[in-house]
Amino acid sequence: MKVAIIGAGLAGLRCGQVLQAAGVSVSWFEKSRAVAGRMSAKRLWGGHVDLGAQYFTARNPAFIQQVHQWQQAGLVAPWLGSIYRYQDNHLVASPDSELRYVGMPAMHSPLRANVPDTAIQLNCRITELQYTDNWQLTASDGSQFTGFDQLVLAIPPAQARNLLTIDTGLQQQLPSQLLLPCHAVALQLSQAISHEAAAIFVRQGPLCWAARHSSKPGRLTEHQQWVLHFNAGYSQQHVDTAAEQLISVAASELSTMLAEPVQVKDSCHHRWLYASVANPAEQPGLLKSDQLPCLVIGDWCFGGRVENAWLAGQAAAEELLNG
């Protein structure tokens, strides 16, 4: 069996790795210049800065085992910083029993550790799908890839809808508004903030999250760094707002929350068009075509979160192996 996987985030990578371990021929096609999707970190300021997923938790026994393996390999570590909440104009400590993990030295580290480069086409945006006796994929530069028995789309539902013009049944199953955007801003400060908060869950204003990135294990930096996420509503309303304006708003909000001046030495902005799940209770599960050998998967299948991306990839591989 030959399988094509479009998308090399955690769901697509896990699916392919399980298939490869079972002897299946797998080829990945990824539009970006590196794997990891929303777990990608940007190379900045002498290291990496996590602009997407900030941490992950492990609750499912199979994923807990995977995390332990990553930890033994030095690819992840617990993040034990002080957790706060900002609500009603007050910043209060909000400790909990949740064990949060981060990749070492970047969130994408466990995903990029054992990826077979020869099986992945990077900078390869698939724009057209055809199926006769097998799948034929056409890329934006005209390259064609053929001979696949199964196809897995490990991409956001809205992107999958655009590709699946040959399967209207599966296309109509895909929720087009399930994933919402998120603006992310990273700030490098010329003067460190003294507050002990490592992370803040923000319950008012334009932000939803603020993290002292330099408090994460393995992030050795000369200057203090913060990463801030705008909430889905604000991000959607300001989807095309200039980076400079968003950076200014983020710095002002951080200063207000911590009641300290924020002196920005450098900054970076990234817009995630498909980030948070609009309604985590909406869990469509793996979506399978009734007409063609095709699956559509992602963390959104089970309500979002890093763990659910891994579980979606695992479930898709088992479906292909046992179906």
Write a structural description.
By secondary structure, this protein is of the alpha/beta class. The chain folds into 2 domains: 1-35 and 115-176 and 284-323, FAD/NAD(P)-binding domain (3-Layer(bba) Sandwich), CATH 3.50.50; 41-107 and 179-277, Polyamine Oxidase, Chain A, domain 2 (Alpha-Beta Complex), CATH 3.90.660. The chain has helices at 10-21, 61-72, 109-112, 157-163, 168-173, 232-237, 243-258, 306-322; strands at residues 2-6, 25-29, 41-44, 47-50, 76-78, 82-87, 90-93, 101-103, 120-121, 126-131, 135-139, 144-148, 150-153, 179-189, 197-202, 207-212, 225-230, 264-277, 287-288, 294-296. It has a 7-stranded mixed β-sheet. Strands 9-2-1-13-20-19 form a 6-stranded mixed β-sheet, with helices on one face. A 3-stranded antiparallel β-sheet has the order 10-11-12, with no helix packed on it. Helix 1 runs parallel beside helix 8 (306-322). It is globular, with a radius of gyration of 20 Å. The two termini are 12 Å apart.
Beginning-to-end CA distance, first to last residue = 12 Å
Major β-sheet annotation: 7 strands, mixed
Structural class: alpha/beta
Beta content comes to 25-35%
CATH class of the largest domain: Alpha Beta
Q: Considering DSSP H and I runs of 4 or more, what fraction of the residues is helical?
A: 10-25%
- Count structural domains: 2
Rough outline: globular
Based on the structure given, which CATH architecture of the largest domain is correct? Answer: Alpha-Beta Complex
